[in-house]
Amino acid sequence: MDDGLPAPPRTVTFGQALRFWLKLGFISFGGPAGQIAVMHQELVERKRWISEKRFLHALNYCMVLPGPEAQQLAIYIGWLLHRTAGGVVAGGLFVLPSLVILIGLSWIYVAFGHVPVVEGLFYGVKPAVTAIVVQAVYRIGSRALKNPVLWGVAAAAFVAIFALKAPFPLIVGGAAVVGAIGGKLSPATFRTGGGHGTAGTGYGPALIDDDTPPPAHARFTGWRAVQVVAAGAVLWGLPMAALVFWLGAQHPLARMGLFFSKAALLTFGGAYAVLPYVYQGAVTQYGWVTAPQMIDGLGLGETTPGPLIMVVAFVGFVGGWTKAYLGPEALFAAGAIAAAVVTWFTFLPSFLMVFVGGPLIESTHGKMQFTAPLTAITAAVVGVILNLALFFGYHVLWPKGVAGPFDWISALIAVAAATALIRFRMNVMAVIAVCAVIGLLSRLYFGV
């Protein structure tokens, strides 16, 4: 077929793939939408390693899973190309640069955070982060709340977490039950749209084309699934057992490992959905970070490559530093080890779910559907994120409590940032940078 385009590559070497995944790890800014767009442009349009139809089919599966869908998509495509090793490299390099950068930034934050210049910068970052969460409510809500029933689910979730202090897992479970029942009683109400367009744009033939049969390693067998599950149990169980038996179940590292293992299975709807759960545990239950530190950590997470849920590495570092479990002379080591432990337990399930489910998905081209429970969970997530926005806003606008003064400068920065993000769709990093400078100038000239 003469489509005016060069032929697709006959093969992609492991070295070529490794170089691409490493590059992606350093340029994957812009949240999941931006990261998925970069992969689509590079892998579907330019390199033509995979066709658009196969790309979207993999993406649909990753959207259903808990966890960072952009990283899971990288794992999926890397696995298709080069078996398990390809998936491990693709997913690992997606988060490794971000982990290294966040460890460095977290160290600067805790070691020099009380320097006036740094304090001024973060004074501007805090209201910007509040605006970013408001934008997340608007963006996810406009896509997810398509009818009064789903609006009702979102409202109920907000009341449950704001007024009743219900734990996040209970809200997710309740929404799933509502969706399962509602999907049978009124399927149209709980039917989801694609949200990512349809495959139909022609970019020419691809190495993994629409009709390319799955490679041998991508064909489902029960024995292979058992092997993957067993390997996953070992990779989770051995480190957890080592932490519990060598350090004790109450040690900060053991608690972090268990807590973030649970968090990894609750990230339906993206990082903003799980942040309230992380807040409940990291701030309220265990005291690894304070509420202002949590806001600052989210700001740092927004300015680094990789999935936004990498903010958990900041939580781990600050928690390890604060608990000083290696003694006062090894605070950096304690923080870095904690950040690595948190990252391991947060992202391990993503690899396992792709390696176990990928072969099944490869056998269901054209049959992938979102479930009614997922629709209800996504609606509930909107209410949960709204609660997070109010939580951040309270701590930013009344830093000394409601009895203290209202911070009008932070309010103006937050309104300007929200307008820039929602109305003018400005780049998140640019908004944070401008707000940080405004915060610094406010500290220098107004003494706030």
Strand and helix map with partners:
Elements: H1 14-27, H2 31-46, H3 52-64, H4 69-112, H5 116-144, H6 148-162, H7 168-185, H8 222-247, H9 252-264, H10 271-285, H11 291-302, H12 311-323, H13 331-362, H14 372-397, H15 408-423, H16 428-446
What distinguishing features does this structure have?
globular
Characterization of this structure:
It is a single chain. Helices cover 72% and strands 0% of the residues. Helix 3 packs across helix 13. The N and C termini lie far apart (67 Å). It has 448 residues and is an all-alpha fold. The protein has one domain (14-446). The protein has helices at residues 14-27, 31-46, 52-64, 69-112, 116-144, 148-162, 168-185, 222-247, 252-264, 271-285, 291-302, 311-323, 331-362, 372-397, 408-423, 428-446. Mean pLDDT is 86; it is low at 193-201 and 366-370. The longest helix is centred in the first third of the chain and has 44 residues, at 69-112.
Order of helices and strands: HHHHHHHHHHHHHHHH
Tell me the radius of gyration: 22 Å
**Helicity level, as a percent range?**
over 70%
Mean pLDDT: 86
Q: Total number of β-strand segments?
A: 0
Count, helices: 16
Low-confidence runs: 193-201, 366-370
Our count of domains comes out at: 1
The major sheet is characterized as: none
Shape: globular
The end-to-end span amounts to 67 Å
What share of residues are in beta strands?
A: under 5%
Structural class, by secondary structure, is: mainly alpha
Summarize the structure.
By secondary structure, the chain is mainly alpha-helical.
